[in-house]
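Structure first, sequence second, as always.
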């Protein structure tokens, strides 16, 4: 078979994107938890189940991804206007597991509704299919907090990874099929793939920063701090809180990015490690362990040499910090050179 032209590849990809977009529209036209009983076809109404609360099971990942949620207002609405929408659930052992409508079920329970309208769906064939369906049922037309979206993105990422690996292992991948996990997640969340990575990065933050990302500050700025270790993240948290105490408002996105970038430089340069005690006492054996100095120098010199010898980029507002760091390193290097030369002479 001859090589495909760039135009053919583009057409194939465009066709696939149209097909994906169409499948999303088709999904939205299907029965969802927002579909009222009156909107169902006669055939669907004939298959509608009216189940008591003890016949329904929550999906095991629902609370972990979406949290408990406040359902009191919805419960009041149900008591006043009746149950709006339906619950989607599939047969699971001798009961029905909910895939869409968990919040409505919780509200109906508070409202002491005796029976819930349930549309029975096909049981998922795999765990990854269950996760994909759970998230898709809760994605379209809804706005979630950054942290919930982050959990959704991670959940979808893991499910799609399993799905793609399964399809690859069984030679099921078709020509032009999208296998980039971030792209697949992006389609479900209706965002771009770079934003998927930013959301997932929030889960690498300490809980206190996650709470700030959810309520107080620009979440995308905080996601940039996800590569900082716990110590630096705690320092960033302290700086943010100090800024709030001083100005009575939380810092903006630019300020957080600047602080995060400077801490990344410090972390990468190892400047902070110079302040720590070089020797760690092994209390169990009662002796001192020293770090392998030669190994550390060799391991870190490569990256530093790349920056020093090549045309690296430095943001203007970070240059003073870089100069300070390099001067500090120069003093330490000169001192160590004297010590080592004295040992071999």
């Amino acid at each position: 078979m001859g090589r495909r032209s760039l135009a053919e590849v583009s057409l194939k990809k465009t066709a696939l994107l149209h097909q994906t977009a169409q499948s999303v529209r088709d999904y939205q036209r299907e029965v969802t938890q927002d579909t009222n009983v009156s909107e169902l076809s006669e055939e669907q109404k004939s298959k509608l189940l009216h189940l008591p609360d003890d016949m329904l099971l929550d999906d095991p990942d629902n609370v972990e991804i979406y949290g408990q949620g406040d359902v009191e207002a919805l419960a009041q609405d149900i008591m006043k206007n009746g149950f709006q929408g339906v619950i989607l659930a599939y047969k699971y052992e001798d009961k029905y597991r909910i895939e869409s409508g968990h919040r409505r079920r919780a509200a109906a329970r508070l409202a002491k509704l005796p029976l819930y309208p349930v549309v029975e769906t096909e049981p998922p064939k795999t765990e990854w299919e269950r996760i994909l369906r759970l998230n898709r049922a809760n994605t379209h037309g809804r706005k979630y907090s950054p942290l919930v979206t982050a959990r959704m993105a991670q959940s979808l990422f893991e499910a799609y990874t399993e799905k793609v690996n399964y399809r690859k292992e069984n030679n099921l991948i078709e020509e032009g099929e999208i296998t980039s996990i971030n792209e697949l997640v992006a389609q479900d969340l209706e965002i771009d793939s770079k934003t998927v990575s930013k959301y997932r990065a929030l889960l690498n933050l300490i809980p206190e920063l996650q709470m700030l990302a959810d309520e107080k500050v620009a979440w995308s700025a905080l996601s940039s701090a996800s590569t900082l270790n716990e110590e630096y993240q705690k320092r960033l948290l302290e700086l943010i809180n100090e800024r709030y105490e001083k100005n009575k408002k939380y810092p903006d996105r630019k300020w957080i990015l600047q602080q995060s970038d400077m801490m990344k430089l410090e972390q990468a340069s190892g400047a902070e490690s110079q302040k720590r005690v070089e020797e760690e006492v092994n209390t169990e054996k009662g002796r001192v362990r020293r770090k392998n100095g030669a190994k550390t120098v060799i391991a870190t010199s490569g990256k530093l040499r790349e920056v020093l010898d090549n045309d690296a980029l430095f943001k203007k507002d970070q240059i003073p910090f870089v100069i300070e760091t390099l001067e500090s390193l120069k003093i330490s290097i000169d001192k160590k050179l004297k010590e080592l030369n004295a040992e071999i002479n």
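Margin note: The chain has a mean pLDDT of 82.
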